[in-house]
Specification:
The chain contains 9 helices and 11 strands. It is of the alpha/beta class. The chain folds into 2 domains: about 170 residues, Rossmann fold, CATH 3.40.50.1000; about 70 residues, 2-Layer Sandwich (Alpha-Beta Plaits), CATH 3.30.70. The chain has a 7-stranded mixed sheet, with helices on both faces. A 4-stranded antiparallel sheet has the order 5-6-8-7, covered by helices on one side. The two termini are about 20 Å apart. The relative contact order is 0.19.
């Protein structure tokens, strides 16, 4: 159950000057973390509250998942999705880059083959996305160093983004959840922002939210705990900490009730 203080802060920002944007991470925030990323899903209750919220404010999911996968996980028509850490937006923005997929595909294929030849594939889950490849080592944390070695050097034009028990290789372009949040705020011309996240990549999103606060917007940053895997930057930048994905859903429910939807 949310504390009285957290509940009050959520209600206050729901009633602040609008338009309001709710920008949330997906895995570890809406969907519980599981060993097999392909088995992750957003609970029906959470999907229902996102759908309700989207009738009263702007709702966006900013995720490392590719755009098509994220849409399957969050099939709400009025929820804006930005996939691949800002590299796959569902709207046009000069802040978010375009990707040359024809050059990207063979480079990722080459890297995947190198990893599978050097690291026992039975322990490493390779998740091929539309414009990136994620190498999950949750079931074999002892292989992290070996995985890192197999990824070096990277083919030109690629870089590594680190997450919770995962190394993701993606285009070396100006992107990130920070730029995605800034693009959303400008695109929808919002005055208030609630943002939720749990992972290292969400720290950048939180920092962008803090920058929006400096510009005069009303902002509430909600960190979602992931146990020992919670990056320090989540706690350091969050205004409130939520205990779990269930608590994140409860926070969204609180906002929905305050908005009378």
């Amino acid at each position: 159950m949310l504390s009285a203080e957290v509940t009050a802060r959520l209600r206050d920002i729901a009633q602040a000057r609008g338009p309001l944007l709710i920008a949330t991470d997906l895995d570890g925030t809406l969907a519980p973390i599981v060993e097999d990323p392909g088995a992750a899903h957003v609970p029906e209750q959470t999907l229902a509250v996102l759908d309700r919220l989207s009738t009263a404010c702007r709702v966006a999911v900013i995720t490392g998942r590719d755009l098509n996968t994220a849409r399957r996980m969050v099939p709400a028509d009025n929820v804006t999705i930005i996939g691949s850490h800002g590299l796959e937006p569902s709207f046009d923005s000069p802040l978010l880059p375009e990707i040359d997929r024809e050059k990207l595909a063979p480079a990722l294929e080459q890297l995947e083959q190198r990893v599978t030849s050097q690291v026992p594939g039975v322990y490493i889950h390779i998740e091929r996305k539309s414009i990136s490849t994620a190498f999950h080592f949750r079931t074999a944390p002892h292989l992290e160093e070996r995985l890192r070695e197999s990824l070096s050097p990277l083919p030109p034009g690629l870089r590594i983004r680190e997450g919770r028990m995962v190394l993701e290789v993606l285009p070396d372009a100006e992107s990130g959840k920070d730029r995605a949040l800034t693009a959303l705020a400008g695109h929808f011309k919002v005055k208030s922002i609630i943002t939720l996240g749990d992972d290292r990549t969400d720290v950048a999103m939180f920092e962008a939210a803090i920058a929006e606060r400096r510009e005069g917007k009303t902002v509430l940053i909600c960190g979602v705990m992931g146990g020992a895997e919670t990056p320090p930057g989540i706690r350091e930048n969050a205004d409130v900490m939520l205990e779990s994905t269930e608590a994140a859903r409860e926070a969204l429910e609180t906002v929905a009730r305050a908005l009378a939807v």
